[in-house]
Amino acid sequence: MTKNELAERSGVSISFLSDLTTGKANPSLKVMEAIAAALETPLPLLLESTDLDRAALDALAGGKMPNSLPAGYERVCAVLPEHRAFQVKKWGEETRKKLRDMDTTQKDY
Predict the structure, then answer these.
(1) Which terminus of the chain has fewer CB atoms gathered within 10 Å of its CB, N or C?
(2) 77 in any annotated domain
(3) Would you say residue 26 has pLDDT above 60?
(4) DSSP state for residue 51 in the 8-state scheme
């Protein structure tokens, strides 16, 4: 997605998005919510995708930073050859479906 597309979908100006990507600006929670919605990504994922360590995130949260994943799950990033990345993407799709199903099951109770 280009910055222009993200700006249109989120309602955040291109100049502010540029400032965010270069570290010249800090977004409000409302802006983060708009960007997350535009990216069709859960807000906690954006908040977890940071170079801050867990202690810093906990301090910013005023206690313990909530994790968007259940115990036993971990989000990772890796650079892989195409054939291996294909398999990892499949595993990711299966896991996301399983987590969505778990979330739906829990809401039924």
Answers:
(1) C
(2) no
(3) yes
(4) S
Confidence (pLDDT) at 8: 96
Q: Which domain holds residue 31?
A: 3-48
Q: What domain count does the chain have?
A: 1
22 assigned to some structural domain? yes
CA angle 22, 50, 101 (to 5 degrees): 130
Tokens of 53: 């360590």
| 20 domain-assigned | yes
pTM: 0.48
Q: How far apart are CA 106 and CA 46, in angstroms?
A: 24
The model's pLDDT over 35-56, given as tens digits with 9 standing for 90+, comes to 989 988 778 777 766 667 777 7
